[in-house]
Amino acid sequence: MATMRRKNRMLLLGVGLSTASLLLTACGAGSSGDGGGSEAGAGEFSFLTNVENTTIPTELETLAGDQCKTAADAMPLKVDTVPQTNLDQQLQLLAGQDALPLQYAAGNAPALTKELAASGNVLDLEATLTDLGVLDQVEPAAIDTIKALYGGFNVLPYQYNVEGIWYNKQLFADNGIEVPQTWDDFVAAADTLDTSGVTPLSASGEQGWPLTRLISGYLFSDLGKDALQKVADGEAKLTDPEYVEAAAAVADLGQKGYFGEGVGSIDYDTAINQFLNGEAGMLYMGSWVLANFNDEAANQIGLDNIGFMPFPRVEGGAGIENQYAANVGLPMAISEKAYNEQAGEWLKCITENYGSSALANQGSISGFKVNEEVDVDPLTQTVQQTISDTSESVLWFEALFGTQATTASQTNAAPLVTGSMSPEQFMDTVQSALK
Amino acid sequence: MQSVLGDKKALVILLGPALLVYSLVMLVPIFWSMGYTFFSGNAISGFTFAGTDNLTRLFTDPEVRTALSFTVRYAVVITVGQIVMGYLLSLMYVFILKKSSNIIRTLVFFPVVLPTVAVALLFQKMFEIAPQNGLVNSLLNGVGIESVDWFGNASSAFWVIVLMDIWRSMGFYAVLLYAGLVDIPEDMLESARLDGATGWRLIRSIVLPLSMPVLLSSIIFSINGTLKVFDSIVALTNGGPGSSTTPLTLYMFRTSFAFGDYGYGSSIALLLTLLCLIVTIFIFRSSRRDLTKD
Predict the structure, then answer these.
(1) Is A285 within 8 Å of A163 (Cβ atoms)?
(2) What is the pLDDT of residue A9?
(3) Which positions, given as ranges, span the membrane (chain B) (predicted)?
(4) Using the beta-carbon criterion (under 8 Å), do B259 and A402 form an inter-chain contact?
(5) Treating both helix axes as pointing N-terminal to C-terminal, what angle do A241-255 and A423-433 enclose, rounded to 10 degrees?
(6) Number of H helices, E strands in chain B
(7) Is residue B53 within 8 angstroms of chain A, CB to CB?
(8) Which of A19, A265, A415 is nearest residue B129 as measured by Cβ atoms?
(9) How is residue B98 annotated by DSSP?
(10) Element (H or E) spanning A380, and its range?
């Protein structure tokens, strides 16, 4: 009997031990699964970016083999990508697990970056770059833009953009179209292009934001620069008639078929390609698109054939002259928790070299100073000139919204222009998602 | 056997580990999640007590209404489709193809083993309109009908999802129901035939009642699976256009992890759990009643 009991006890012990070891193995696997995160990231320069952006990873890889070789040898660059539409949730999940990579794309809504900063996940770049002695290598105007949007110098200006409308000069000339000055001219130009069998405006409804940019452009031009600030402050509502009018104007473009067929399924690359192979006459986009324009294989219409214009004026509106939206693209933040001395080497090297390197290799304009003489094409020069001439600029539609309203706006943009959602419904949906 | 199960220690040893693992990975998160319903905030910014705000918000949020109505519509349509198609296929295997049904069975079952994302991409391309027409629109153009923007409109997007999910899963239900049908004793069918029952009469009076238990299990499987649909819709439409094909699961996921509101996300999860519970209880009740009647 005693042996029986001992046997039972041994059995119980064995089962207990094996269960415990199973659980431990499970936990162990969990923590090593976080390897891409801050802990294991100490050995490598981990970088999470949106899959649509190929400019920054390519350029960092170039730097890793050239000017930043020392930093890269000590801390190799490792790039991970996520579709931009999934970026916000990926960041929140990683931040919740303390597993953010060293450098990451800062989210679609500046509100998210502010939240990450408040929880100690974002490195204060003003202090860090001052310590590294390279703060003067960043354009002051870019720092101002970042501070206005992100509540501090929290992100790196790998891109410094103006947004406006790019047009195909040849198609404009063939159809006798003058560069449109007013919204009515713009609609007339679109109509002429449509009649001649060209898609007037190429836009990605899958991304949504290229469509909502048109709404904000109209709003700023019609109601003035502070139109969306008033909404953020609660002084005005998107459902007010003057705001709905902007959504209606853009929905009207869609109703007339000016975005072509199946705009909701058109992704970012397809929208750019439609413009670059001459299927579309106009494209609303930021100047980061110059990197695509400079790609000779993709650009079939030729660099000389592309013009750039400000957002058309809404007649009688209270907006500024030559209205461009300015921003720092989708900027990159550095994780405060993963930052160390080796990362500092990288950061210093990027700040000193990225400006000239990206401009020379990809024609991409950044907020870093250009330290070397770089030959640029006339179109890039025009854009550089526009940036330096622009003293007043506007933001984008969702700049002051939280993540929920940003998602509501961007996912419902395509239904708005295809007519399955009315302008009133659209604005109401976005307004109720605003907190 | 009796003596082993009568021994409490043996019971603890046999059940303990499984119960412990089950509690840790299932029960603890469930109660944890229920706790979240009383808080707002997320893992980044911390949590604040919100009382019953999240639960009352469920009743006023128009997005919840849209998601709930989509989920229920989807579950009903897909369940009916899966079971009806599965049952028809299994009848075909048993009564028409008989012994030579192997190849057809394998072919119809094939989509079940394909990854959901691959199937969704296949359907996306088939129903594509931009940048170029997919197979379906090309066929329509071939017979002189204009291209349709299938994913640009809530109702056509819904029917593409329905078509895809029925195609993807009917093979599984066909095999499940086939297993039930081959269990029906041949002599019983034979005697019914001798009594003059053929075709529809044979199916209605003999086959259907005898395959009722497996049919009911299939319905429970199907409705619970479809109420919790997530992957196929994310891969095919990502809930669009707008939020018109967003089920509760996707809305819950977005609320928690994209909008950073774990509390409200948990409240939506609670709603979904209640929905599954009600449906399951309802089906169990009705099945029990049926069995006593028989």
Answers:
(1) yes
(2) 53
(3) 12-32, 74-96, 103-123, 157-181, 202-223, 262-284
(4) yes
(5) 130
(6) 16, 2
(7) no
(8) A265
(9) G
(10) helix A378-389
Collect all residues with Cβ–Cβ distance below 8 Å to A198 and sequence separation of at least 6.
A171, A278, A279, A280, A281
Ranges of each domain in chain A: 40-160+329-369, 163-327+394-433
- How far, in whole angstroms, is CA B207 from its chain's centroid? 25
- Give domain limits for chain B: 1-29, 37-293
- Using an 8 Å CB-CB cutoff, list chain B residues near A261: 129-130, 147, 149
Instruction: Tell how far CA B165 is from the center of its chain.
Output: 9
Q: Determine how many CB atoms are found less than 10 A away from the CB of residue A339.
A: 18
For the four alpha carbons of B123, B128, B131 and B135, in that order, the dihedral sign comes to positive
Topology (CATH) of A40-160+329-369: D-Maltodextrin-Binding Protein; domain 2 (3.40.190)
Tokens of A201: 């405006």
Tell me phi and psi for residue B128, to 5 degrees. Answer: -70, 150
d(CA A284, CA A263): 14
Q: Record the tokens describing residue A276, joined without a space.
A: 């670059």
User: What would the two tokens of residue B174 be?
Assistant: 């066909």
The whole model's pTM is what?
Answer: 0.84
Place of tokens 């269960």: A19
* Close Cβ partners of A100 (under 8 Å, ≥ 6 residues apart): A37, A38, A48, A91, A94, A116, A121, A335, A337, A338
- Strand positions, DSSP E, chain B: 39-42, 46-49
User: For residue A327, is pLDDT > 90?
Assistant: no
- Predicted confidence (pLDDT) at residue A116 exceeds the cutoff of 60: yes
Q: Which residue of B has its CA nearest to A413?
A: B242
Tracing tokens 């222009």 back to the chain, one arrives at: A417
- Rounded to whole angstroms, how far apart are CA atoms B3 and B5? 6
pLDDT in tens, A65-85: 999 999 999 999 999 999 988
CA distance A131 to A330: 25
**In chain A, count of helices (H) and strands (E)?**
18, 10
C-alpha span between A48 and A39 (Å, rounded) = 15
Quote the CA–CA distance of A402 and A435 in Å, as a whole number.
7
Are β-strands A325-327 and A161-168 bridged in parallel, bridged antiparallel, or unpaired?
antiparallel
Distance from CA of A29 to the nearest CA of B (A): 15
The minimum CA-CA distance between B170 and chain A, rounded to whole Å, is 28
Determine contact, residues B272/B278, Cβ cutoff 8 Å. Answer: no
Please list the rounded mean pLDDT of every run of 10 residues in chain B (294 residues): 75 91 93 93 88 93 94 96 95 87 91 95 93 93 93 93 96 94 89 86 89 89 91 92 94 91 94 90 73 46
3-class DSSP assignment, residue A212:
helix
For residue A8, the distance in angstroms to the closest alpha carbon of chain B comes to: 8
Tokens encoding B258: 């994209």
Please report the ipTM that was assigned to this predicted complex: 0.81
Among A366, A376, A398, CA closest to A159: A366
Integer Cα distance of A144 and B211 in angstroms: 73
User: CB neighbours of A75 closer than 8 A, spacing ≥ 6?
Assistant: A43, A44, A45, A342, A343, A345, A346
CA distance A249 to A239: 14
Fold of B37-293: MetI-like fold (1.10.3720)
Residue closest to A193 by CA, chosen among A253, A258, A256, A251:
A258
DSSP annotation of B258 reads I
B258 touches chain A (CB under 8 A): yes
- Residue B24 near chain A (CB below 8 Å): yes
Residue B114 backbone phi and psi in degrees, to 5: -75, 145
Query: Using only C-alpha atoms, what is the Rg of chain A?
Result: 25
Q: Is A421 exposed, middle or buried (0-12, 13-18, 19+ CB in 10 A)?
A: buried
